[in-house]
Amino acid sequence: METIPPEIDTVLSDPPEAVTTSTYVSGDDAANWPTLLGMKNNTAELVEGCAPWTFKSDVPAHLAGDKEAYVKWRATGTTAHLVFSGYEGRNPGLRCSKGNPVSRMHCFVADYDSKISDKDCQSLFERCPADLRPNWISKTFAGGRRLVWMFEKPIAADHDKLRKKFLEMVKSELLLNKLLAGLDESAWADTAKYYDVGTDWQQLSGKPLPVNWLFHIMQKASEKLN
């Protein structure tokens, strides 16, 4: 039997009050979205608030179509770009790592590595739970897509086994393997992963995932462990 730490068990047994309105959306129109945490390049250590959907990339033209060179450019200490994460470390000013494990989660990011057409994206809602739509979609350098589900509020995510079971259940609830082709399974569970900002961000929904739904799935994950 897996033992849940007292502080997490208390949160699970005392879920938040019902959420009827969002503090930053009105209907399907987003306004004042909360920021995520990002860095200027993949070798940086310091993170700060960022809004990937508004970031203006300035990628050198000669890198077009050369993924290997692009990844190397992103890993150069002098590069001023953006890579972001849905996680926050115990020290919120530093990147998540073994030395700075995850404390909270702000959003879900699903990375799809295969070549995906605009037509595939246009039919996304036909395969997506109507009340659990992603908020954003963006293009990756290699022609894949990335989906982001924002949370109404950040949630605790510092219990490793509980978080892993939670993510496994969320993947099923959101039908991630049916939405688009080529889900990167390892990235989905990797708390140290920082995603390239990509391009062509489009808003799909202005409604974040409700805290009550997140805690409901977390509770079910806790019960599975017990």
Describe the SSE topology:
Blueprint: H1 6-13, E1 25-26, E2 29-30, E3 36-39, E4 48-50, H2 67-74, E5 83-85, E6 87-89, E7 102-112, H3 118-122, E8 136-139, E9 145-156, H4 160-173, H5 176-179, H6 185-188, E10 195-196, E11 199-203, H7 211-225
Helix pairs in contact: 4-7
Largest sheet: 5 strands, antiparallel
Order of helices and strands: HEEEEHEEEHEEHHHEEH
Radius of gyration over alpha carbons? 18 Å
Query: Strand order within the widest sheet?
Result: 6-7-9-8-11
Helix content: 25-40%
Shape: globular
Mean pLDDT: 88
Distance between the termini: 5 Å
Which range does the strand content fall in?
15-25%
Number of strands: 11
Low-confidence stretches: 5-31
Helix and strand content put the structural class at alpha+beta
- Tell me the number of helical segments per DSSP (H or I, 4 or more residues long): 7
Task: Explain what the structure shows.
With 226 residues, the chain is an alpha+beta fold. Helices cover 26% and strands 23% of the residues. The chain has 7 helices and 11 strands. It has helices spanning 6-13, 67-74, 118-122, 160-173, 176-179, 185-188, 211-225, and strands at 25-26, 29-30, 36-39, 48-50, 83-85, 87-89, 102-112, 136-139, 145-156, 195-196, 199-203. The strands form 3 sheets. A 5-stranded antiparallel sheet has the order 6-7-9-8-11. Strand 3 and strand 4 form a beta hairpin. The protein is globular and about 50 Å long. The model is unreliable at 5-31 (pLDDT under 50).
